[in-house]
Amino acid sequence: MYRVIHQLKERNFDRTITKSEKAVLDYLEAHFNQIPKYTVVKIARESYTSQATINRTAKLLGFKGFSELKYAIKEDVDLLSSETQTHIRNTEYILSKINFSQVDSLVKHLYQHRRTILIFGLGASNVSAQYMARQFLYFGIPAIVVSELQMLNQFKGYTLLILSSSGETQRCLQMLENAKRANMFILSITKKASSISENSTYTFVHDVPVDKMEGISREQQLHMILMINEVINKLKLNYFHHTT
User: Where in the chain is the domain with CATH 3.40.50.10490?
Assistant: First the structure.
C-alpha cells in the first residue's frame, strides 16, 4: 500500500496549503525517487523553503516529521521499482476510485430497456463504446453506437448511454441536452460530480484524476474499460447467467 505518492498527486488535504508547503510538495513529487538519499537541508535549500516548512509539510502528509516521511517514501520507491508492481499500483488505485455501488441501478435499467439502447462516446471513449456494443450483442442486445447529434431524431423513446471520462466534453454535453429535449432516459459512465453525471437518470462514476497520474494520458481508458466490464459482468450474472 502506498503511503505518500498518491497524496502528492491528489493533494486532498483538510486545509488550504501555504505557498511554501506547495513548493515542498512540488519538490517531493518531482524528485520522489531521490528523496530517500536527500537530507532535509538539501531539500530546504533546493525548494527555497525551510526545515520547519518541510517538517510541517510532513505532518500535513500524516507523518510526525521528515524522518518518518523519508522512510515512507523509501518504502514507496521500493514498490515503484518493480514494473509489475507499478501496473498493479495503477490498477488498484483506479479500482479504488470507481463507485461500484452504483452499477446495479444502471444495469437494471439497461436490461429493462435492452431493445432501445444508444451508446455515445468521443475519441478513445468511442472505441470503448464500440467495445461495449459488441459485448451487448453477445446477449442479444442490439445497442447502437451513435456519433452525430442529428441521429437522436431517429430514435425517440430510446435510452442514451454516454461514455465520457471527464463528463465535461462539449459535444457530450450537447448530446445530453438533445437527449433531454427528446425525453430520453440518460445513463452515463463518467466522472464523479461532473455535468453529465449530475444530469443522468442513472450514472456509474469514477473519481480518477487522470491528468495527474504519471504515465497516463488524457486518452487513458483503463478505468472506463474496467467500468464497462463491470456492467457486462453484472448483466451476465443477474440476467443472462444461462448464456454461454
Answer: 100-238
- Dihedrals phi, psi of 216, to nearest 5 degrees: -120, 120
Q: Where exactly does CATH 1.10.10.10 map onto the chain?
A: 5-81
CATH of 5-81, one of 2.10.260.10, 1.10.10.10, 3.40.50.10860, 3.40.50.150: 1.10.10.10
DSSP 57-75: HHHHTT-SSHHHHHHHHHH
10-42: pLDDT as tens digits: 999 999 999 999 999 999 999 999 999 999 999
The total of other beta-carbon atoms located within 10 Å of residue 48's CB is: 11
For residue 64, what is its C-alpha cell? 510526525
Contact between 135 and 114 (Cβ < 8 Å): no
Q: Check: pTM over 0.90? Answer yes or no.
A: no
- On average, the pLDDT of the chain sits at 90
Smallest Cα–Cα separation from 9: which of 25, 23, 21, 24? 25
Q: Minimal CA–CA distance to 144: which of 184, 96, 199, 89?
A: 184
Among 228, 240, 195, residue whose Cα is nearest residue 119: 228
The CATH architecture annotation of domain 100-238 reads 3-Layer(aba) Sandwich (3.40)
What is the Cα–Cα distance from 54 to 124, expressed in whole angstroms? 41
**Rounded-to-integer distance, Cα 188 and Cα 165, Å:** 10
